[in-house]
Amino acid sequence: MTTEPSQALLEATARREHAACLMCGPEVPAGFRLRFVVQADGAVEACYLPERARQGYGGLLHGGVIAALLDAAMTNALFARGVAALTARLEVRYRRPVRLGQPVTARSWLVDARLPACRMAAELWQDGGRAVQASAVFMRAGR
């Protein structure tokens, strides 16, 4: 895959492929409304303020929500290259709890692409430290 990531490509692909997404769909009533931004190094980032409605254990963000945030970041990193793909395998390493009410940053980038498969990586940062990391394999969506 040789397409350089761009914000325009991310937004066009997301609008076409993912408009009703729970994580990043702009008009989903109970959605997260994440907005991913392409960084100078080609990665994408989005900020999110964990709210009480997404709680697992007391005061902590639910682990499944964390996995969904990282999955969404990886999906949007592919959108930035014009690729729509489905998660085939996702591995999440929880390094420390993610607290509610304190902003987090989800960051993702392409590791390797040998279409139809893409290897991705993502991290969730809070308070200046990496709280969670993930890796995944995505398969290009066939329609």
Total discrete domains: 1
- Report on the biggest sheet: 6 strands, antiparallel
Roughly how many Å is the radius of gyration?
A: 14 Å
- The largest beta-sheet arranges its strands as 1-2-4-5-6-3
Q: Write the CATH architecture name.
A: Roll
| Average pLDDT metric | 94
If you had to describe this structure to a student in words, what would you say it looks like?
- The model has no long low-confidence stretch (mean pLDDT 94).
- The chain has a six-stranded antiparallel beta sheet with strand order 1-2-4-5-6-3, with helices on one face.
- The chain has one domain (7-140): Hotdog Thioesterase (Thiol Ester Dehydrase, Chain A), CATH 3.10.129.10.
- Helix 1 packs across helix 2.
- The protein is an alpha+beta fold and 143 residues long.
- The chain is built from two helices and six strands.
Concise synopsis of the structure shown:
The protein has helices spanning 7-18, 63-79; strands spanning 37-38, 44-48, 85-94, 104-114, 117-126, 129-140.
Topology:
Blueprint: H1 7-18, E1 37-38, E2 44-48, H2 63-79, E3 85-94, E4 104-114, E5 117-126, E6 129-140
Antiparallel strand pairs: 1-2, 2-4, 3-6, 4-5, 5-6
Helix pairs in contact: 1-2
